[in-house]
Amino acid sequence: MATFWRAFPCSKAELDLGLTLACGQSFRWAMVPGAISGVLAGRVWRLSQTDTHIRYQVIGHVGDKPTPSRPGRKNQKRKSNTPIEPNNETVQKKIKSEKNVDTKKQTEMMTQAMTSNTEGTKISKIKTEDTEEVTLKTEAGLTEDDICISVLRDYFQLDVKLTDLYEQWCKADPHFKQVSPNFTGIRMLRQDPVENLFSFICSSNNHISRISGMVERLCEAYSTQQYELYGVTYYAFPTVSALAGKGVEERLRKLGFGYRARYISETAQYIMKQGGESWLYNLRTLTYEEAKAELMKLSGVGAKVADCVCLMSLDKTGAIPVDTHVWQIVNRDYKHKLGTTKTLTDKTYKEIGDFFRQIWGPYAGWAHSVLFAADLRRFQERKTSPEKKAVAKKSVKKKKSR
DNA sequence: AAGTGACCTGG
DNA sequence: CAGGTCACT
Fold this sequence. Notes:
Layout: E1 6-9, H1 17-21, E2 30-32, E3 35-40, E4 43-49, E5 53-61, H2 103-115, E6 126-127, H3 144-155, H4 162-172, H5 174-179, H6 193-201, H7 208-222, E7 226-229, E8 232-235, H8 240-243, H9 248-254, H10 260-273, H11 277-282, H12 288-295, H13 303-313, H14 324-333, H15 346-360, H16 364-375, H17 389-393
Antiparallel strand pairs: 1-5, 1-6, 2-3, 3-4, 4-5, 7-8
Helix pairs in contact: 2-3, 6-13, 9-10, 12-13, 15-16
The structure holds a DNA duplex (11 and 9 nucleotides).
């Protein structure tokens, strides 16, 4: 069976793939020619977008070739940032759904597919370059493609009507109204809490290019499921159990994690002591305040990282991570409403979150990500203002990150 | 409670 | 110094 593109209708105002996947929420999507590729829900995806549709294809499943990593074994370095893939759309790899090891997650997704509210965004399958239909069905009677669609709907949270939210935020906030037109379609992903948490533990006092590399090395070293295609290896994110093992801190230090190596090791062990990954998933059922308090007990997790996890994988739509970047935005664009202060204390941190929640409402965290993205250096070219001289000066070939 | 410094590494 | 956290005045 050949892989092929499928698509569903979706406007760029509802979801801008490029912005959403590159605005610092997730660190593992790779820009490849004509598409974005990455691992999600046990599958290796390629995604792209037209003016009217999101296009997607699954090119493999992690776990097809289980190769448990052994501590001490040297992993061969692969530049998955720039996969060498033929433009040829047909890939001969068979999808072996009967061998799919990720049945637990799959079941969860199917359940969500059955129960999710579908009236907001209607999904209709469009076959663009298909050669044959996917006929494999699960016990629940779903085709592989039914599952793919539910995975994407869940990950991109397509039941949330983003254009309505933008409208509301614009009405409530003049500054948002001024900035947002060049940054439409930025929505919160609903990430896997494990990947989200450990990735953002790596983010402390660190920059994006390095975080991406660290997450990549974390996967190379501790992922238990992977899939190789055209010389590129795609990894499932490591399990908490794998990260809780003996000697993890030492190995991660050697891999350049610095003091975050201890954070990762201790946090993994703490989670295992609480009952494993299910403990983390269960934070979704708590209130924002409760979930944040639990997260802040973890090593290497302060207010900012806790808010990132609450917002990006625990469904706390009002959580607002206040980092130095947001701090700058506040002092530059909202200082008239909030007294300008010198340092970011616990008190100020809370005041800023409350301030934005009061303005933007229950989805304040989503709104925050729009302004955050609009402030990223790499997106400055999107701004219509002609004063791009400061940016042009810096436009060296610094395309090191994905 | 606000302020200060160390902590890993690399651009 | 960089999209922080932790320990300690």
